[in-house]
Amino acid sequence: MRFPLSVFELPSRISKVIITAALISCSILLLLSFTAGAALADNLSDLNSLGKASSVYYYSQGKPTAGELWLAFKRLKNASPAQVNAAVIKARFTNATSAGKIYLFLLMRQVDPVAASHLMDKLITNKSKVVYRKPYASETITVEKLARRIAAGLDVLQADSP
Q1: Taking the model in full, what pTM does it have?
Q2: Whole-angstrom Cα distance, residue 61 to residue 136?
């Protein structure tokens, strides 16, 4: 009668199991890194599109451009802080359009309230004009006035309300 594993076969079988487990775990980690990278790329793309916004839309109103911005804002608002951090938002803020600065400020307020207060100081001194599209009308308003509405606690975007 022979034993199922001899003394010489046991180490080679154990090493095969260890190597197989290591390959499986590496494959899983590689797959997760691609998935996380894609999510991060989507977030950066959304931040770029918000930073280039030409108007501030209260809600999507069925318009394609408004819908894209509104959905990008919602995705970023619901993203984890690890995916959307204050440094990335602040970097986009410096080169953003007037409307883009409003969107980015609202995101910053959620991610880092202290950094958002510094951005609010910049918005309140900003006299540039922005087109603010509400449900039944649109108006040209200064960034300062829109920032004061935000500071007063008024909803500027429907997507920003809880």
Answers
A1: 0.69
A2: 9
